[in-house]
């Protein structure tokens, strides 16, 4: 049994992670850390764990937890992990960071978009971007994995084959994204007060959301041009799910069938990426509660644009599930272990 | 008192219209027609009208109703109005058609996108597109007004000043639209079954929605180029509201202030179009239940695109409210009469 | 024009009140007070008021506002009004208190259930309970009206005729109540965070909710027995609406028709109380956005119980609308002025 | 591997069952039957099964399926199973009926409440009511199990210890129940159209719901009196979950601690029944997606009533999960196999 710990165990990402880890047959949750709930029983915080999960939260930093476990999941606000982590810790323990500190390999970009210093630039160099469908081989050898943001997971998986194959005009990309409200986390504020967000729809972070440089950097790695794009997130009055609608001009003429074959080339063997049938498009309900990313494509001949719809569960493929997938790869477990549930429907 | 009638009185558009007409001080609802509910009390169909609205539905065609009233509102599926209407009727009565039959002035376009013959091409020629902010003077003199579609109302109002002033590249336009489920009407089907649409988000009508040619035709009228664009509607799990996120490349360099001035030039005197302050963007909750269209703009210097957010209540400014606005213009009433309520919040 | 002021203008009750007052033809809103938003434009706080309501908030206490207006609406947490009000103020201005301080005429009961001292027991004696259907004549002459709680409005109106006529066993009453989340107000907390309350249902305040003694006291006034009952509120994942399901043993044998006649005796002339037809029952959607209270009754011969369903909009008949109704009575306006809208449906 | 079949595989209960059966390590789904979708791939009907479940639907009756499998789950409207089943089939195959035909042991009661003849009264005699916490030993030996209704599961588990121990007045019972909309199934109709049920709350089946006699019959079996009670279901605008609020007069004086001990006596060893801590009460979100039934109790000394809150997932403990639990008992599997997931939160 691999021993794991979770730091930031009482946020939504943390609790989703614990739920999935409990189902994993090769893993034992050894320690959970929370500053706010230090000393409290986990099932007093989250009643769904009542009688079935008995750990107490304890406030621990990364170094302290590194003495107890084989792998640590970090579910922390940006800026904390990079200041606590150092090379000595990485010699003792594997790290999967679900926060933002190691996602951008360009430090300047990080410091500009996140408006804070990066505390461990040396470690940043070795961090592997944890999108298994793109970086599986690197993840196998990684000591530290930067788990992707929720929006980038759906956005990059949707567009990656088109960029790799030079199908689209790199500077024509527009990603219009929509997320359920779990994406905003558990901290209360007026914008996520029930009666302020229920039965309403809005955009936010227009031309300024921090997932923009993450998507740009990743797609640029597979292009000979530097990609600059528009990314606009919106808030959907529902708990979970991300849907991304991506638009790009086609540089070459292709049929649906040809484009579909390209996606199959990259994702045909990927369990967690599913292509919908022609003229069927992803809906968040079909992936909610699962680690799948569903993708559907449409070519609009009138405008010569391709439209790609991607859908994920923001808490699973967009966060905790992908973290488990990365753990499975690191330890050589079956990549699906613990995360092979399909969506519960209707839920 | 102007006598009005409603044909298609028991759908969602019909019932919203009756609610607004009841509040109008210069109007008397003389007759309401419904095929399905012929002979039934209106307040047995919609319990919110209990004890306060006493008319019975009667199945009547347009010609029959034209004998009784000064103006008829049509809330019918496409293809019916164009077959019932003729010039003789128009000599007796004003028509505001909330359906699609007279929205496209290009008959071929209509017949292609709606896959049906147009039954009264002669009348189509004189129909005025009922977007008061663009066509107020024509509406004053019109015998027949084609009330715009819900998505076109928000889309066109959002983009119109940019096209008029030649600010944007005409072929770079992408409109990513999101609507509450009232847009789908009252007819039951699996897609709008509560448990199939609640807590999920999806696109539909991708590259094929019938509001596309309507938006293109209207914007093209104010451009020297023929505009072809991408329009993608999505379904939001909420009752009401449309938000459109529009993207276009800027042809000229402009500051936020300069663009804002352009919008003010066109909408500064318009009661029902409101510009949000800089970096504040429309949310559907602020217009729900009202006839307002809120618009917010953002210039993204990184991509040289302008992003315009528009929000309306799809049942009011997107349908019944705009119909009343048109009626007010036709009869010379105060344009706000009956439709000056602000949004109820939170509702 | 009557000049009115609102203290506590930026909570949900305050903003609903301002919306309704704006529609009232005999009233001018002279001043609005808010501690939190002192000095801010109201339409910067609530964007639905953008461009149509131009007042600024100013932090004022009751005495200060009493110099400026004819009537003050108080929308304050309990315990504040009773400490600020005094007889001198009442000589200058009418008060409609939408808080709890003057609802219970039994001071001991108030101090026990609200766990605070009452600051103006002398004024409490003259306060009139503002349920117009029961106390219209007293309200006409009142200087201070205690606007009822949301749950009591639906509960008392549902049960009152049965108590008045001695139909039910006074100690068999159980009121199982359900409310939308606006009832919890605008202050953020974990329980009303979107993702904590959406798609879930729970009871709260079981056997301890402060509206219990209010219902008991009012019903007891019309009975020769002191009524002690069970009242259980529940939270429904929706914005607005209260539905109360009340159960009581029948002391006498009555048919549906006979019971219906009793309700008609009390409510037949009441515009805002509507009886549903037999075997049709209230739903919150039919009253949402309106000042109506819909009531439906069912006699269960198997158990000899009567079940009464009541539905109101908690923000309107349950709060701001009823406050306007009381104002209309006090000043001799048409009782429906400003509050005669029917429900918008679907919204 | 035990071979199982599902008849009625494409309704909500059917699809939930298949999802759970796929996770079960001792079971193979051999055949799935659907009349409506005969010949179609299951993952073309439910996209969440895309690529991971490859069976086709085939229209089969019970006798035909009995040739292929060891156990059949029936998910059919009432009246069908009782007409298709006979003793010969029961010699070949075990049956778990998730419909209503074998839930009431009193045939007259069945025929009265369901307004249809019962087609196999001989089989009804041997059917075991499939509530494992009450009838585990009988289920072990059963050839046919009548899986309880969703409301009865929560209602009976909530009240059973109080009846067994003679704590409450048998004729004082009132069960006020609330359900998410999956309870209404997948057939479209106006009442469950999104915009008709969203953001509204209502009661239905008042004093006439068919789960009433089921609850009465079961509770009466453990009492020396025949229990007649009020049961009122309500529809909550959410997908899943049932919460029952039960009220009864106490015949004897007991403290919370004493009552809690009684519940622990019956449920202390039951994995799927969880008691909340004192003054913590069940919420549907904590059981949604799980097979748990959470129960919380409150004694109101003012009224001498006990209030019991029960919560289940109507599709799992209220239907498909309980069916699997029964299957596990019949075949001697670990009772938790396939159904030990905790609630996903927030979802």
Q: Which strand order does the major sheet of chain A show?
A: 8-9-7-10-13-12-11
What radius of gyration of chain A results from the CA coordinates? 20 Å
Beta-sheet strand percentage of chain A?
15-25%
Shape of chain A: globular
Low-pLDDT segments, ≥5 res of chain A: none
Overall mean pLDDT of chain A stands at 97
Q: What multimeric state do the chains show? A: homotetramer
Give me the number of helical elements of chain A. 13
Helix amount of chain A, in percent?
25-40%
Largest sheet of chain A: 7 strands, mixed
Which structural class do the helices and strands of chain A define?
A: alpha/beta
Element order, helices and strands of chain A? Answer: EHEHHEHHEHHEHEHEHEHEEHEEEH
Count of DSSP E strands of chain A?
Answer: 13
Distance between the termini of chain A: 33 Å
Question: Largest interface by residue count?
Answer: A-B, 46 and 46 residues
């Amino acid at each position: 049994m691999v021993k794991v710990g979770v730091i930031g165990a009482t946020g939504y990402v943390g609790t989703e992670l614990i739920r999935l880890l409990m189902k994993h047959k090769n893993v034992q949750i050894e320690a959970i850390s929370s500053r706010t709930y230090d000393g409290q029983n986990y099932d007093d915080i989250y009643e769904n764990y009542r009688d079935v999960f008995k750990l107490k939260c304890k406030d621990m930093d990364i170094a302290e937890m590194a003495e107890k476990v084989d792998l640590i999941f970090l579910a922390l606000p940006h800026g904390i992990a990079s200041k606590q982590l150092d090379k000595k810790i990485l010699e003792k323990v594997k790290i999967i960071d679900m926060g933002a500190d190691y996602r951008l390999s360009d430090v300047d970009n990080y410091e500009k978009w996140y408006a804070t210093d990066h505390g461990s630039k040396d470690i940043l160099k070795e961090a592997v971007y944890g999108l298994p469908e793109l970086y599986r081989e690197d993840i196998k050898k990684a000591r530290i994995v930067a788990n992707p943001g929720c929006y980038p997971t759906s956005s990059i998986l949707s567009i990656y084959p088109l960029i790799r194959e030079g199908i689209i005009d790199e500077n024509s990309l527009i990603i219009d994204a929509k997320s359920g409200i779990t994406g905003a986390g558990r901290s209360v504020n007026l914008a996520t007060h029930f009666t302020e967000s229920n039965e309403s729809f809005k955009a936010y972070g227009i031309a300024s959301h921090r997932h923009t440089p993450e998507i740009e950097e990743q797609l640029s790695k597979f292009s000979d041009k530097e990609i600059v794009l528009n990314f606009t997130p919106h808030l959907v009055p529902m708990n979970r799910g991300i849907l991304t609608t991506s638009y790009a001009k086609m540089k070459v003429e292709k049929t649906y069938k040809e484009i579909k074959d390209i996606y199959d080339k990259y994702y045909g063997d990927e369990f967690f990426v599913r292509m919908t049938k022609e003229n069927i498009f992803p809906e968040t309900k079909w992936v909610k509660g699962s680690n799948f990313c569903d993708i559907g494509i449409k070519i609009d001949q009138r405008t010569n644009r391709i439209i790609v719809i991607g859908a994920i569960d923001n808490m699973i493929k967009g966060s905790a599930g992908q973290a488990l997938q990365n753990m499975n790869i690191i330890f050589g477990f079956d990549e699906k272990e613990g995360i092979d549930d399909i969506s519960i429907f209707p839920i």
